[in-house]
Fold these 2 entries.
Entry 1:
Amino acid sequence: MTLRIALVGATGAVGRLVLQQLDERNFPLQSLKLLASSRSAGSVIPFRGEDHCVEELIPESFDDVDLVIASTPDEIARSFIPEAVRRGAVVVDESGAWRMDPQVPLVVPEVNAHAMEHHHGIIASPNCSTTQMVVAMKPIHDAARIRRVIVSTYQSTSGAGLAGQQDLDLGSRAALDNQAYDYAAFSHPIAFNLIPQIGSAGESAYTSEELKMVHETHKIFEDDSIRICPTCVRVPVTNCHSESILVETDRKISTDEAREVFQACAGVEVIDDLTAGQYPMPLDCSGRDPVYVGRIREDLSSENGLAFWCVSDNLRKGAATNAIQIAELFASREKVAGR
Amino acid sequence: MTLRIALVGATGAVGRLVLQQLDERNFPLQSLKLLASSRSAGSVIPFRGEDHCVEELIPESFDDVDLVIASTPDEIARSFIPEAVRRGAVVVDESGAWRMDPQVPLVVPEVNAHAMEHHHGIIASPNCSTTQMVVAMKPIHDAARIRRVIVSTYQSTSGAGLAGQQDLDLGSRAALDNQAYDYAAFSHPIAFNLIPQIGSAGESAYTSEELKMVHETHKIFEDDSIRICPTCVRVPVTNCHSESILVETDRKISTDEAREVFQACAGVEVIDDLTAGQYPMPLDCSGRDPVYVGRIREDLSSENGLAFWCVSDNLRKGAATNAIQIAELFASREKVAGR
């Protein structure tokens, strides 16, 4: 069956990609409605050769919609989504507003597609840094059960939206010319610098971004006993998040076995030949959907540890692609249900 | 007493800083000789108001020299240093050529000044990524004994010398203008990218840079039982290396105690107020000597773990400053010995 889709936040960095992927992946669309705040309403976005006018989001927007894909800030998602659900739509939400709600499944299709069955109108997509990590963890967890994760991230500026990308571009130009630049999306200069804080200060001196990696991973694997120590760092990279990950497993998993299970896993691509200088890098992985894994090696500091390097396009698998995959799963299940 | 000093590699990124620090720190100089390859010989460098001509390094260069400070590639250091020692000079070497030689002390003055006593003419200064890590480890190790270290680095392009810095500058300009750029110091683009390889491919799928962090740390602490898992990554930052470090200790050390012992430690500065957005960042730490520590927090993944973020100027404490500190220690000991 085809679905009547509404896209909320169509003019943002992720929204644009969702639109592009609806087209590329030939999503079964019956109709498409583009919604945004009053500020963006009225702009025109081409889709499949037709101009679509962006409408202002109002409660009635959802009256003739089966599925909403929403990429908005948390506070917007908190306010409009209950209304959309009340009016009969199912919402795939990319914000952080609903992820930890016990009624809301938090889904990465390669990892826990089964969780979708129990939705009550909202299905949440995880934070970008979590999504790529759990995709990479999944085959190792299935093979040898992960007990502990230590992860340091290298997160691109596109994670802070179009303003973040523009900050890196304009801030870099200014720095190269010894000019001042007033950053819009970051509280410190990001050009040629690192900011070891993403999100706000949270409990135990961790940031909200770091705590998301802990809590969302627990929810997705339905296992709070996995112990996770994250450090999240913004780096002057335009797009793609990278992660230095060390996992400790119940039984030792060799690098050969790890490589095999990574390669066999949907959504994971292995690039791993250190001697040939081959490993995933943000510039190469940008604009692609897989989660890339490389630098696979035994942990030198524990018996059952495995270290690896993981790169993925945070706007695609970290956001738009994961939401579309959830929408595709929803569409295929609705079909089975004969709706 | 004053010393007759020769500086080898005076025209390089580190050599220039050594010269600057000899002046700033008012080093007890009797004479100063600047040495370099035939390519750089003849250039003129001002020092304390006088022009010094860079001479070509030949065996006789060392006949009237007490102490050599050398910043050269490994292969150069391997060939000229035995000759310098034969001719009576003591050499502080910043290259990797002699660090793991059992006859050669590997010294970070804040950590193992005592090791200098047993030199046989060569005293080595560690790799930049090791130096800042061991300075930060030292107070925690003294307080609670470190058993294990997991470290992911964010290393600046100045670690690859002047060519590395130029690559980032020119490569960034080219990328911003959608132009091609042919990198000289890196085998992959570094502008707006990450390269998860520093040095060559070594044993067990670790890089030479990563293995240096393991072996040099063992030698400096005289303890091979400290288990270390490093991941070394080049980032598009001009100067200062940053490290996300997790240590596991014999007994639990609280964040309050950790902050106290860090603050009491020579060479360490604490910048740690997440709520106020205060932590060490490369742009702020560049051009300074301390090892900066922040984001101090309990490891969420083990009982006795402590996580922190460490930034230091890799050209200063990571190279020039550490070498000068060794030279100062040498000068003060020679004085005691009454030479």
Note: Chain A touches chain B through 60 residues (CB under 8 Å).
Entry 2:
Amino acid sequence: MKALVLFSGGVDSTTCLGMAIEKYGREQVTALSVFYGQKHKKEMEAAKQIAVYYQVEHLQLDLERIFQYSNCALLSHSDQDIPKEDYASQIADAEGKPVSTYVPFRNGLFLASAASIGLSKGCDVIYYGAHRDDAAGAAYPDCSKEFYQAMNQAVLEGSEGQIRLEAPFIEWTKAEVVRKGLEINVPFKMTWSCYLGGEKPCGICGTCRDRAAAFAENGILDI
Amino acid sequence: MKALVLFSGGVDSTTCLGMAIEKYGREQVTALSVFYGQKHKKEMEAAKQIAVYYQVEHLQLDLERIFQYSNCALLSHSDQDIPKEDYASQIADAEGKPVSTYVPFRNGLFLASAASIGLSKGCDVIYYGAHRDDAAGAAYPDCSKEFYQAMNQAVLEGSEGQIRLEAPFIEWTKAEVVRKGLEINVPFKMTWSCYLGGEKPCGICGTCRDRAAAFAENGILDI
């Protein structure tokens, strides 16, 4: 059994990578990181270092051109700033639509790319770290359980059952993901979450706030 | 209403493009052609000329790197030759698995890319020209109705219902696609189907045979 793990270098996907390595062994695991035109490359740098730490094969893919027409706030060519509010406020402002940091169908594109590459490399399963908090209030619809189930069906049908998806955190909160990561000694110190690319995390963007809260719920300061 | 059409420059997708233009008007239609590392660029050249003929916006995307690990017979780096048998023989040889010209999850990847681009450009629908004959016997599982339905659900869920798929030929034979194309004056002379990149179509690869048969069923020689 071989697994391909979608791996951004953040808390969730690094925990996902750690779980896949625990289950399959590091020689049966390949990590796939996708650059899509973010305002910074801190995540990608973190991903490279973590892959070295875990001693897993690490593939990198550049899909920036696909998002050249999008004005999503995460993208370097966008004229929108990264919001400084927490997700709850952003979700309320978005009125049932995705938030301004939603990258159009990003996870669908990443999973389809992973399916193509995974099939070519003889993998049986694709892991990805979407969790319940990211899907809340339609903030990121491509993190929802409904999306995961439909996409898994599409991957199964389109590959004649040769490869499938596995989203172990789809019903978990981010705090539960962190708890699992702590249990299996995920090197959280090496991960990067912040949407901005400063020397240190900004502490006020949605993802910084979520990360801090998830660690706090586990009774510890972010490590 | 705006439509994005997956457009290879072959018979099926050109008919699909013609239908979308009939329905939405050419100013509301964008054609998207994807190069994925084929052994030749004849399709892409045909696609460019047909887009000029129809006067539609034409986007081109290069996803060759995603398939660098695949040994599919259509790809330039593959050591497999294009089969010279008809699809029925190939399907029998494949014993319930996809044929050697199946590009791993290609249509899933193309549709996911189209969803990302279509959302960025404010499109409501993605057209693609998969038909029943291509799905027969699991030859190309990413042309099946089951795949289409699951992928449409994934696109709907992952975009919060902002964009959907439309596969008008999903229950049609290729002969029925050609009949429709003839009705709406699709410029079939400009299309390219052959898997090889010679000056003229080879006449013996699976897709050449299928094309000739589809025209013959309509009582005419290929035009």
Note: Chain A touches chain B at residues 61-62, 65-71, 96-98, 103-109, 111-113, 115-117, 119-121, 138, 141-142, 144, 146-147, 150-151, 153-160, 163 (CB under 8 Å).
